[in-house]
Amino acid sequence: MLTILFDGVAYGMLLFVLAVGLCITLGLMNFINLAHGAFAMAGGYLTVVMMNRMGISFYWCLPAAFIFAAVLGVVLERTLYRRLYDKTHLDQVLFSIGLIFMATAAVDYAMGASQQIVNLPPELNGRVEILGANVGVYRLFVIAICGLLTIALQYVIARTRFGSRLRASVDDGRVARGLGIDVTGIFALTFAVGSGLAGLGGALGASILSMDPSFPLKYMIYFLIVISVGGASTITGPFFASILLGVADVAGKYFIPAVGGFIIYTIMVAVLIFRPQGLFTRSAKR
Amino acid sequence: MSAIDAKPPAEAAAPPAASGAPAVSPAARLLAGSRWRWYEFAFWGLALGSYFVFPNKLMLISEILILGLLALSIDLTLGYAGLVTLGQGAFFGVGAYAAGLAAKYGAGAGPWSDPLLGLVIAAGAAGLVGFVTSFLVLRGSDLTRLMVTLGVALIVEEIVTQAKSVTGGSDGLQGVMSSNVLGMWSFDLYGKTAFWYVLIVTFVCFWFCRRLVNSPFGLSLLAIKGNPLRARAIGMPVNARLVAIYTISAAIAGLAGGLLTQTTQFASPDMVAFHRSADSLLILIFGGSGHLYGGLIGAVAFRIMQDFIGNITPQYWLFWVGLVLVLLVLFVRNGIVGLMANGWRRLTQKSHEGKNP
């Protein structure tokens, strides 16, 4: 029972790291980037390549995945995404679906359609007893890293100058611009960090989530649930939403496997209808 | 969208678009729009003629028509009412399974296997689902709509794959046997009956949509698309109109799904999958939304492209779909119909030459 809770929390934390970049970019630019999962996939596959083909240690892969996805993100943002900020949501959705398709096919071409397997370092395998629950060491590792990241993110956003600028831009981009805040620059940086976090999440999750070419499409819906439940203006909202989703998904698959994803989809639609601004936000804005 | 309409009012073509038209009375505008133009005859003539030109590709042509019908149903909501949706595949799938189950129940002989009744059932089931879910679409922004429609499509897909006893799960619905069309023509191996059946049903649906968008009702949809607040302010029942068009669109999508099940004698979860919704949206955008013909022309272009690229790199077809989507969004507005209308206008301004797609 407690094991499921632990697994769920680890899964939820992972989802949070994967989705947080999307939440912020959505809140900041009102831009729907469905292709966010592609950055996670990039990080995951980089890890696979580095570990299995070059034999580089897993711990080096994590920062590498972050940097790789962040660079990828900033390049795409500067060349392609920025052209779409003033277009309709439909255009943005079509565009990012196009990117998903391209990423899926490109990875299929380069790496094959089969699921990739990551061999974790031996010290991360195995299980330990905590509070009477049997917990995988790797799950603990994931929880620790994601927890640290969350705290760091919360600190940056709540305490630093950059964070206050970011919050100002999210709250009202126009006024923030009027006050001399470089919203475009902040956005590019946030996009890069968000993509980087997705890449890191992909690297961390390469052994938990199944890493195959359909990854961006499969997890797109999870990101959307995190956003719709958590709201897109803070990071605490998405955080609780991710944990909730992770636990609900793991528990649901464990106890009532026949129902599968049905419950979480229903929850998403219900939340969207009754609280379009998200469960954990203060008030409706957009 | 305004490309076709920008011609002089006497020549104003099929879709009454919401922009920059000179002051014409609404009735005259509707009448001008509802007149059949020569290129419309040419289009359906070509569709008819393809029976004789490609006698061994009839199944493919039927499939193209079905795809076009699905895209047409999206055109009603997106192109005319301005409702974005990512979940049209749900209605397509509901229709496909409804028709399939009805035919299976009748086991190829009983009254339930009648294809026309199957279509009615498919349209009814999908329309019902559309009616119920339309209330979810009324609220919120574009983003909420996209996510709600996507969520509904995912729920339908989940139901289809999980309810194995009814739908056959991921193996698909086997043993779909339709009886003869009108009791006279049976579905043959070469798809001759299927071709005529699909062509006629598609045409009837198209004719219905054409009447619909050229009616005061259709005009009110364009008004709602242009500015929902103002439409409400002049006394239009905005929500009721949106519910109506969403339901109609769902029913037509269901009809398309029913057609596919009946002609292929099979229904699978693939028919409700996400890529079905994405593809049909792509087809419509490819062809150009808000013209009615966009979906049909887009479907033709889409399948030709699929065949062409599929011959070179069958496995990585998805990449090129993605590339086309990205390029379309970035560079081409209004799709093929928009391009053709632009080209046509340029030609007629200079000299009279042939149509240049």
Describe the structure.
In chain A, strand 1 and strand 2 (133-136) form a beta hairpin. In chain A, 71% of the residues lie in helices and 3% in strands. With 286 residues, chain A is an all-alpha fold. A two-stranded antiparallel ribbon of chain A has the order 1-2. Chain A has one domain: ABC transporter involved in vitamin B12 uptake, BtuC (Orthogonal Bundle). Chain A contains eleven helices and two strands. Chain B is globular, with a radius of gyration of 20 Å. The model of chain B is unreliable at 1-21 and 353-357 (pLDDT under 50). With 357 residues, chain B is mainly alpha-helical. Chain B is 69% helix and 0% strand. Chain B has one domain (9-350): Orthogonal Bundle (ABC transporter involved in vitamin B12 uptake, BtuC), CATH 1.10.3470. The chains are: A mainly alpha (286), B mainly alpha (357). The A-B interface holds A 32, 80, 83-84, 87-91, 93-95, 97-106, 108-109, 217, 221, 224, 228, 258-262, 265-266, 268-269, 272-273, 276, 286 and B 78, 84, 86, 136, 139-144, 146-148, 150-152, 154-155, 158-159, 161-162, 274, 278, 281-282, 285, 315-326, 328-330.
Task: Write the SSE topology.
The complex is a heterodimer of chains A (286) and B (357).
Chain A: H1 2-29, H2 36-54, H3 58-79, H4 89-111, E1 127-130, E2 133-136, H5 137-159, H6 161-171, H7 173-178, H8 183-205, H9 215-230, H10 236-255, H11 262-274
Helix pairs in contact in A: 1-5, 1-6, 1-8, 1-9, 1-10, 2-3, 2-8, 2-9, 3-8, 5-6, 6-8, 9-10, 9-11
Chain B: H1 26-34, H2 38-53, H3 58-80, H4 88-106, H5 115-137, H6 142-162, H7 164-167, H8 192-213, H9 216-226, H10 228-233, H11 238-264, H12 274-287, H13 293-312, H14 317-331, H15 335-350
Order of helices and strands of chain B: HHHHHHHHHHHHHHH
CATH topology of chain B: ABC transporter involved in vitamin B12 uptake, BtuC
Structural domain count of chain B:
1
Structural class of chain B: mainly alpha
Give me the CATH architecture of chain A, please: Orthogonal Bundle
Low-pLDDT stretches of chain B: 1-21, 353-357
> What would you say the CATH architecture of chain B is?
Orthogonal Bundle
> What does the largest sheet of chain B look like?
none
Determine and state the CATH class of chain B: Mainly Alpha
- Shape label of chain A: globular
What oligomerization state is this entry in? heterodimer
